Amino acid sequence: MNTPVLDIKNLSVGYHTQRGRLKALRNVSFAIPQNSIVGIVGESGCGKSTLISAIIRLLAGNAEIGSGQILFKNDDLLAKTENQMRALRGVDLSMVFQDPMRTHNPVLTIGRQMTDIQYRDQLTKAQKKERAAEMLSLVGIPDAAERLNQYPHEFSGGMRQRIAIAMALMARPSLLIADEPTTALDATLEVQIIKRLRELQSEIGCSILFISHHLGVIAELCDYVVVMYAGEVIEQGPVREVFHTPAHPYTSALLRCDPGNIREKTRNLPTIPGEIPDLVDLPAGCVFQSRCAQAVDSCVTARPEFRNVAGGHSAACHLLGEEVPA
Amino acid sequence: MDQAVKTNPVKSRGEMGEMFYHLIRDPLGLTGLVIVVLIVFSAAFAGQIVPYDPIALNIPDRLQGPSLSHLLGTDQLGRDTFSRMVMGGRVALQVALPTIIGAVSIGTLLGMIAGYGPRWLDNLILLFFDTIRSFPTVMFALAVVALIGPSLNTVVFVIMATSIPTYGRVVRTMTQSLKSSEFIDAEKSLGATTKRILGVHILPNVLGPIAVLAAMDIPTIVGLEAGLSFLGMGVRPPTPSWGSLLNDGYALIRNTPWPIIAGGLPLILTTLGFTFLGEALRDVVDPKLRGRGGAR
Amino acid sequence: MSALLEINDVFVRFTVRGGLLGAIGLANAGDIEAVSGVSLKIKAGETYGIVGESGSGKTTLARAVAGLHHASEGSINYNGMELRGLTESRFRPLRRDIVMMFQDPTGSLSPRLTVSSLITEPFRIQGMKGKDLDAEAGRLLSMVGLPREFGQRYPHQLSGGQARRVGVARALALDPKLLIADEPTAGLDVSVQGEMLNLLAALQDRMGLAIMIITHNLNVVRHITDRVGIMYLGKLVEEGPTEAIFSNPKHPYTLALLAANPEPDPDANLARIELNGEPPSVLNRPHGCEFHTRCPFVQPRCRTETPDWRDHGESRFHRCHFPEIWDAEQPVLEKVAQ
After folding, report:
1. pLDDT by residue (tens digit) across C96-127?
2. Contact assignment for A278 to B2 by CB distance below 8 Å
3. Is A13's Cβ below 8 Å from some Cβ in B?
4. Which of B83-97, C106-120, C321-335 has the lowest mean pLDDT?
5. Is C147 part of the contact surface with chain A (CB cutoff 8 Å)?
6. What is residue C133's predicted lDDT score, i.e. its pLDDT?
7. ipTM
């Protein structure tokens, strides 16, 4: 009914490095409702790669999950065995990656790869092929049936990404995780793929977790947005609320810097000066305070709690008036 | 994580220092390093270490077992086996080091030219490499020895010649892949000459893997020298070599096993030592693998 | 004012060896024409943006100007001197004036050299050994806003943004007149893109530098360029002063590019120009107007006749049979061009 497809509660992940424990994710919590598209916005070092790796359980060897739960349809993924995870991946929980040039096995035809991943289904080979062709035309590849016999290098980057999306959606998953799927593509292609994704989402009824640093695409595609900074979620809510009335200074600064937002010609573009803090040796207080133009004393000493701004829109900042924790 | 580097001041140990530091921490690397240092040291100071002159005959004391005066006994001519073993190490390195240095230098030079230069030059050099490699090494060695007679220099020459293509090909491949790197384009755009590009920008990047190869190759060369000397085609007697020790030892095996041990054991140790060192070096030479390879 | 750089009808072609015979050097599959007749002028101190997507030939053009590719045809004239056909030794002294900044920030830095050595390479290459290279390194580092200690670091110890700054420092070491910047903000976070562009703008003001920026992102060029040229499949399809292009684009491709970078406003009613399909292969160029396969306003004439380069006055040019065909769809124009 209303159980979210994915509910992340207080997830903390760290890496063991030579210099100490690198706290990549700290107390990350957010939920993805059914039949919706949630975007994650963040810059380098915000932890989005770690987050995705944690969800699909493909973390690096030196990673350690400190605490938290990842509830996928009310089932904690962190409690599952590797075999159980393997049964999920590609079926109910699938992924599209950033680099379309390296996503596919170069020595197998696309048709072969698309039928291979249906190995769990009890279908004949012909049926699997038909299903594959159907998915390909759904993502907008013409002459799908013939093109099944072609190799990845015979397709352009944009087409390869469509194929990746087709493969991810073939089993009608409940959740599709898309990790910057259009970053490597030209802008005019990005436009086409985003549109296609939106159509497919409403047709299949799945949810999508869409990671991107391109604010314009998030604004266009997503229903909700989660803003991450240096390993924490600092703001989240319906995309309209967050983008029109950002509550956290980082979000507003980010929006200010987006070139699409800058109206007048200027030789002095806005930036956010400074760098993200050292994740091994975190300062006390708010994680953004060293770069925040509006920092006050309490920002240095105390970590801000999540406060409600409006229905469903919350942010972690001391400057927010309301004391009601979200 | 990229950001960890940004804000943390880098303790500058320098490239060499970094490599050494990580090498020590790898148990395999440390072992290898210790063995290699031991061998090199004993070879370098062989003259001072040996208790007896390795070629001095002492018939009355022949075929003795180990004792306080002769640590490993004596051979059929009364020569002190221990002294011969230590001196044999010097011979082994006297062959291995010039060979390696020669093969690496010539191979690297030709390899860089082949990889970077025009296609026709590449094809020519490859032809040269393939011709050499088509001779079976030992046959080639025997043929040369038959022509100019056995001696230390012959062995050096033969092994060096046959090793050149190995290094050449590896350097060529690395050069080819580096050639299309963006930093080479950047240097070209600054006006760097080909000589500069090869010497300053390509060479340092191929030396690391080559050093590893060379370290792993030394045992092979030492073994080759021992083999040739065993067959009587290497160093001329009475110069001691581990190979000739083994040869003598075969004949004496019923009398005393010690010459064989004196010939075989150092060969094993050398192989182990250089191989361990080479393996550890490989993990250490690539900055991305440093501290993550064997050393965890 | 005469131009610092004048490119006239430049073609850059590559030969592709094809098939089995090609592998043994006996047959060629054909020529790829990466740059197909481009002409433009850049004045001293001016910033010119070349915008195009993959396959547009913009990087090839930049490299031809920087002397890394040979132009097959046409003229590349720098300060009155013809660059095409110059031998490397004649070109070398010009490399003090014409420098390039590369797309891959760390990849364009020689991995075994320290930052200090890297940024003083130009001095050594040009044979200026007399200078105090340490002092120069320090000067250059502070010019790009990096602390002195960075001189001892190696490229793999730098972040993307820092590596880019090193690239800038190296490029500007000898006080050049023309800087070619290949995707200077690619891969940078939005919050630091501005920093890089501000740095380039400040250095330009200080040094009187002309800059040729290559990018696929129209938004990047808006604030830093004086003129923009849009490339598609090796040709310029539109050119003009930046503001004019943004407020009044004339070519459908320009319109599509502008529309493809949406602003982060969920309420923006995106009546966008959507292009059909994918860019055609350079090996298989379409007939007539090369853009016709993707143009949403395509007419029969476009498939057979190649449009001329039209002068619209005020230094605006473009290449289309039916400019302003979308005037009928005014709301589209309004929304997109804001």
Report:
1. 999 999 988 899 999 989 999 999 999 999 88
2. no
3. no
4. C321-335
5. no
6. 87
7. 0.84
Cβ contact, residue pair B189, C95, below 8 Å: yes
Query: CB–CB of C208/C44 below 8 Å?
Result: yes
Tell me, yes or no, if the pTM score tops 0.90. no
Q: Phi and psi (nearest 5°) for C295? A: -75, 130
Q: Please, which residues bridge with residue A235 across strands?
A: A227, A315
Q: Which 67-96 residues of chain C touch chain B by CB within 8 A?
A: 67-68, 91-92, 95
What does each C-alpha distance from A162 to A99, A136, A194 come to in angstroms? 12, 8, 10
Q: Give the confidence band of C261 by pLDDT, cuts at 50, 70, 90.
A: confident
Q: List chain C domain ranges.
A: 98-175
Q: What is the rounded CA–CA span in Å between residue B223 and residue B141?
A: 14
Other CB atoms closer than 10 Å to residue B41's CB: what's the count? 12
pLDDT of C290-319, one tens digit each? 888 888 888 888 888 888 777 766 667 778
DSSP strand E in C43-103: where?
47-51, 73-78, 81-82, 98-101
Residue B293: pLDDT band with limits 50, 70, 90: very low
Distance of residue C239 Cα from the nearest chain B Cα, in angstroms: 27
Three-class SS string for B188-201? HHHCCCHHHHHHHH
Nearest to C147 by CA among C158, C160, C131: C158
Q: What pLDDT does B199 receive? A: 92
CB contact under 8 A, C270 and A188: no
Identify how many contiguous H helices and E strands chain C contains and give both numbers. Answer: 12, 12
Q: How far apart, in whole angstroms, are the C-alpha atoms of residue B138 and residue A48?
A: 59
Which residue's structure tokens are 């400074």? A274
Which residues of A are less than 8 Å from B8 in CB distance?
A: 19, 278
Calpha distance B247→B244 (Å, rounded): 5
DSSP conformation letters of C163-211:
HHHHHHHHHTTT--SEEEEESTTTT--HHHHHHHHHHHHHHHHHHT-EE
Residue with tokens 């499949």: C233
How close does chain B come to C322, measured CA to CA in Å?
41
Give the DSSP letter of residue A186.
Answer: -
- Domains, chain B, in order of start with CATH, read 14-55+66-295 (1.10.3720.10)
